[in-house]
Amino acid sequence: MSQINAQLLDDASGKTIAAVATAGLKGDAGERTGKVAESYLGGLKLAELAKAKKVLRVVFDRGGFRYHGRVAAFAEGARAGGLEF
Question: Could you say which architecture CATH assigns to the domain 5-80?
């Protein structure tokens, strides 16, 4: 897995509200480096897109992946961006 692809879905309508891919994202990710930094920034970006659509609460489905490393960094970024789950 070289990148994380994440979507916000409306379960009632089955439509995608927002989506983000972490490959190549650059910015301030604190002490994080490499792919973990990209994942954190992806979480921030998804939170930004969600807030623009007035979505503040979500359910975080890790798709069977363990909650550590890049998955945890993505969730931390989303929370830091203002999403609640």
Answer: 2-Layer Sandwich (3.30)
pTM over 0.85: yes
Look-up of token digits 């550590």: 68
Give Cα separations from 50 to 19, 20, 31, 47, 83 (angstroms): 9, 11, 25, 5, 8
Strands, E, within 1-85: which ranges?
A: 5-10, 15-21
CA 80 to chain centre: 10
**Annotated domain spans of the chain:** 5-80
pLDDT over 80 (residue 1)? no
